[in-house]
Amino acid sequence: MEREIKISVRHLRLFAIVSGTVAFAFWVWAIVNTITGGPDLGVISFLAVMLSGAGLLRLAATIPERLRDDKTNVCTSRCVVASHILVALNYAAGAFLILSPYVENNIGITIYCIVFAMVWVPSAGLGWWLLKQHRRTSAEETTNTDDQESDQVILKIPINTGP
Fold it and tell me: In angstroms, rounded to a whole number, what is the distance separating the alpha carbons of residues 160 and 33?
């Protein structure tokens, strides 16, 4: 059984905007932390997410030529994944440092770091998946029946419905 899934450029734009907006909020917080309390690597990692999101928005704005260009798409995918993983590693490092014997143990901050490390990893996977679907369309036939929906592609993905 095959199920048609519509993946549109709007999904890529939405992903870029949401992740970039969230990153911006935490980036500002990281700057404040750095100014008031010491270095916060979130200044770098959240900036990386904002830059990769900006690259994704630029890529999505040039549909269909650049989005289907495999080199550009793979490079963007890697940047998106790397930036989101960098944030997750930053949170994991924070949790590790807080649990070390050299730092005053704060269970609330530790839980915060662990939870957000686990949030950014699936976010990286989602970005990779969205861009992978568009890479796949360059090798598959795309179906566009309406000029107004030229930013949509229909993928036929096999779905197992049971034994």
Answer: 49
- Predicted TM-score (pTM) of the model is 0.76
100: tokens are 């070390």
Copy the structure tokens of residue 7: 């993946």
Residues lower than pLDDT 70 in the chain: 1-8, 63-70, 102-103, 134-135, 137-163
For 55-100, what is each residue's pLDDT tens digit?
A: 888 877 775 555 556 677 778 889 999 999 999 999 999 888 888 7
Cα separation, 118 vs 22, in Å, equals 15
Rounded Cα distance between 157 and 65, Å, is 23
Report the C-alpha gap between 154 and 163 in whole angstroms.
26
- The partner residues of 152 in beta bridges, in order of sequence, read 8
> In one letter, which amino acid is 62?
T
Q: Using an 8 Å Cβ cutoff, are 136 and 155 in contact?
A: yes
- Least Cα distance to 110 among 121, 94, 89, 88 occurs for 94
